Amino acid sequence: MAIATLTAAATAAEPTCGADVLGTSRTVTLKREGAAWGTAQHAALPGLAPGEVVLTFDDGPRPESTPAVLKALADHCVKATFFMNGEPLTRHPALARQVRDAGHTVGMHGYRHDNFSQLPAEDQGRDLKAMMAAYVDVLGEAPASYRFPFLAESPVLLKALATLGITVMSVDAGAEDWLPDQTPQMLADKLLGQLGRSGGGIVLLHDAQDQTARAMPFLLQALKGKGYRVVHLRWE
């Protein structure tokens, strides 16, 4: 696996950011390549210092919750990466473009959110083709990154993505925010506990979850309180 080239593209938070918000400490640009990162399944993303986190969101866009996530991120001057499913991307193209136009990065997360370990190879290929077509149709550019639904990576799609030069993003820490009936404090405790073990890295959250959307201001403040610094990812 080739090592990604990391280039610092920005070092300061936006001018409207105050000292009391989390902010984005820097932006890192990755090469478009068939790499795979995230210690849940692969090597750690190179170039991240201890205490640096990359915020990522799965399963959107969803009109009932994604706008609240966007507002919380904007209020804290934080940039993130949104791994979108093809079906909601197609249903809500304006919201998908709103995410992109707010300065966030958009990646792919499977067209139907299937568990590919349970699908025939032909169906896996059809899902990837549909996902890529939806991405290009809505966002007008070639996709550069992909996260497997359920993190259920398959040899068939890993090979296809590597051939296409699309980076696979796994995770390093999360809040298990897909589990029901969790308060902001519960989500923060889980997230900070996992980050305490990993030291930082790629964070998995879900903008399609109402409880996550409600908790975002609290979670961002909790990250700031513990001294974590946000790194935004882009691809060349």
Q: Which band does the percent of strand residues land in?
A: 15-25%
* CATH domain topology: TIM Barrel
Q: Report the CATH architecture.
A: Alpha-Beta Barrel
- Indicate the percent of residues in helices: 25-40%
CATH class: Alpha Beta
Number of domains: 1
N-to-C SSE string, H for helix and E for strand:
EEEEHEHHEHEHEEHEHE
Rg computed from alpha carbons, rounded to a whole number of angstroms: 17 Å
Main sheet: strands, sense, barrel: 8 strands, mixed
CATH superfamily: Glycoside hydrolase/deacetylase
Gross morphology is globular
Mean pLDDT: 93
Count of helical stretches: 7
Number of strands: 11
- Helix/strand structural class: alpha/beta
| Poorly predicted spans | 1-15
Taking the alpha carbons of the first and last residues, their distance comes to 18 Å
Structure notes:
With 236 residues, the chain is α/β, with parallel strands linked by helices. The chain has helices at residues 66-75, 86-91, 93-101, 121-139, 155-164, 184-198, 210-225, and strands at residues 7-10, 26-30, 36-37, 52-58, 81-84, 105-108, 145-146, 167-169, 173-174, 201-206, 229-235. The strands form two sheets. Strands 1, 2, 4, 5, 6, 9, 10 and 11 form an eight-stranded mixed beta sheet that branches. The protein has a three-stranded parallel beta sheet with strand order 3-8-7, with helices on one face. The protein is built from seven helices and eleven strands. The model is unreliable at 1-15 (pLDDT under 50). It has one domain (50-230): TIM Barrel (Alpha-Beta Barrel), CATH 3.20.20. 45% of the residues are buried. The radius of gyration is 17 Å and the shape is globular.
